Description:
By secondary structure, the chain is of the alpha+beta class. Among the domains are: 1-38, no CATH class; 42-92, 2-Layer Sandwich (Alpha-Beta Plaits); 102-214, 2-Layer Sandwich (GMP Synthetase, Chain A, domain 3); 226-259 and 339-399, ANL, C-terminal domain (GMP Synthetase, Chain A, domain 3), CATH 3.30.300.30. The protein has 15 helices and 14 strands.
Amino acid sequence: MIQILNSWTVLEPQKKVVVVLAAIATLIAFFGLVRVVNTPSMALLYSGLGPATSGEIVTALEQKAIPFEIRGDAIYVDSTQRDQARLSLASEGLPSNGIAGYELLDSLSGFGTTSQMFDAAYWRAKEGELARTILASARISMARVHIANTVKQPFNSSVTPSASVTVSAKNGTINVGQAQAIRYLVAAAVSGMLPEQVAVIDTEYGIILQPGTTSNFSSATGELDARAQELRENVERLLTARVGSGNAVVEVMIEAQTESETITERILDPERSVAISSDSETSTETSSGGTGGAVTVASNLPDNGETAASGQSSNNQSQSRERINYEISETVRERVQKPGDIARLSVAVLINYETIVEQNGDTITIPRSEAEITAFQALVQSAVGFSAERGDVITIENMQFPESPVLGTEASAGMLQGYALNISAILQMLVLAIVTLALGMFVVKPILTNSAPQLDQLPMAALGSDAEYRPSSTLTELSDVPALENTPKDPVEILRETIAQRSEESGHLLRNWIETDAQKQKEQVT
């Protein structure tokens, strides 16, 4: 403490002002550092909410005394209280999506509610429930449902309800498959509604599904796109096993059938006959007769009976007929082609040159052989289901790929991976720490070092007279000792260096000082 006071006493006024300012700046930096350390780390609570919903959440946070910050449309709270705040707000039904559902029917009473009022509340509640269900999708940020259901009339029961759904996607737009799912969801929730009567509209990209039309073609087109992607991945995986990763580029295009066609084919084969029916008929006829003559008394006598019988004759006749009906062999084939079927398949493959490493370590690239390209052609045809009758085309070209420059190296994961760090707070703490350290090292320390009294500036009266403390022999020996310069070094360190360099002379000087002190003490005693 005495050394600090002595250093402060010998300081010049300008240096005293600098020291005071540096001390104040150091204190400010220290308090700022403490404040940053004590400031809680803020984490995202909710974002993308409407003004009304955000106001409800802010009010609830104020009532619960939870610190929060509002940054645009996002609300941040203390990271240690975020999960608790979410659960607490969820128990209160926050954040609400602002869409009322079947709870609208709870406010209706039996008295004073007409049938028209109930119907209006019912359809409004159904629209809200459908919108809530659609919003359950992670890709949809906004949804509105409008149902047009005309009041049924006694003599007109052919009224078909219709609906329109307006959606907004979080990123881009929804695809046809998702729009089709929304259409069937709404149609299944309303009695008597057909899926074709539901229109799906994107707020940014317009109509996705028009009312009155089916989406078979659109759905089939989406399936073809997925099929093309699958074929491309299969071919790339097959070629990568041979040429290496990044040395093959594959593109697959599927042309879809846009028209519906029904083909009926009838084939007759005359060489192949088939018996379809058989009819057979057999008839037998028997007849008998005798010789003609006059009828007399003698012919009727008993004695003449045998004579008369011998004169008769008989006739037997049989007839058979068979009829077989044959029909020519006939084959009937009916083929129906619906929109969305594959009409033509085109595959383009680009393969890089082959890289060869020579014995000296150099690498060269050469074109691939025709046999290898032919083998690639056969593999691709088998992988995609090539059909020459359909007119499929497969093109394989071998070209050299340009070398892409290396933009940098991949950073490896550090020890702090997996920890949620507040980068802004860390930077603030680091800057304040650097400022505090710089003020102490480059401002305060040099001033205190320069203000320390040097050995050549000490008053001689404090050391005694020249004749008393500096014998001629010792002074002569130390005459060539280099004078201490006014440098910011520590005087003790300078003295140590001098003693190390002039150990013998320093010993003589210390011995003379000790003997002089001993002589003075003896004189005082006497």
